[in-house]
TrEMBL record:
Gene Ontology cellular-component annotations: bacterial-type flagellum basal body
Pfam assignment, any one: FliMN_C
Keyword terms, alphabetized: Cell projection, Cilium, Flagellum
GO molecular function: cytoskeletal motor activity
Record-given protein name: Flagellar motor switch protein FliN
PANTHER family on file: FLAGELLAR MOTOR SWITCH PROTEIN FLIM (PTHR30034), YOP PROTEINS TRANSLOCATION PROTEIN Q (PTHR30034:SF6)
Length: 88
């Protein structure tokens, strides 16, 4: 077991984006539909603690929705991250 094994990570998936006026948002209620700038076949962005880490495709398995990872995004480690690894 490593020190990293028990660190919680918040994973979220960004399906798309849109811009609407605030007055339109305030009038929305249950059942309102917000159209996004993506299509069903477009890739989604997978975020870990609000940082993009991968891309993927939406998959449906019965009544469940999942994401199939298609690409892992690599970033150069920051100086702060390098220092944290040195302390371990």
């Amino acid at each position: 077991m490593t020190p990293f094994d028990n660190i919680p990570i918040d994973i979220s998936v960004q399906l798309g984006t849109t811009m609407i006026p605030i007055h339109q948002l305030l009038r929305m209620g249950r059942g309102a539909v917000i159209e996004l700038d993506t299509r069903e076949s477009d890739e989604v962005t997978i975020l870990a603690n609000n940082v993009p880490v991968a891309s993927g495709q939406v998959i449906l398995r019965g009544d469940r929705i999942g994401i199939s990872i298609t690409e892992v995004l690599f970033r150069a480690p920051t100086a702060r991250a390098k220092e944290a690894v040195k302390r371990l």
